[in-house]
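Appendix B, record 7
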Amino acid sequence: MLEVKLSDNTKTFVSVTWDSISDNQISKENVFIKNGAIEGTDKKAVAEITVK
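Structure tokens (predicted):
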């Protein structure tokens, strides 16, 4: 679930289907971008992931 702010300034939670994460991306310190699709819309979500 992801909290989003709507055009009327209210906030709600939506489901996001994220692209898969490979073992290589999380096996060492790394920063990478993952894209996702917000359920029920044509909108996309983007996350920057930091592995420490």
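Remarks on this record: The first strand starts at residue 2 and ends at 5. The chain has a mean pLDDT of 95.
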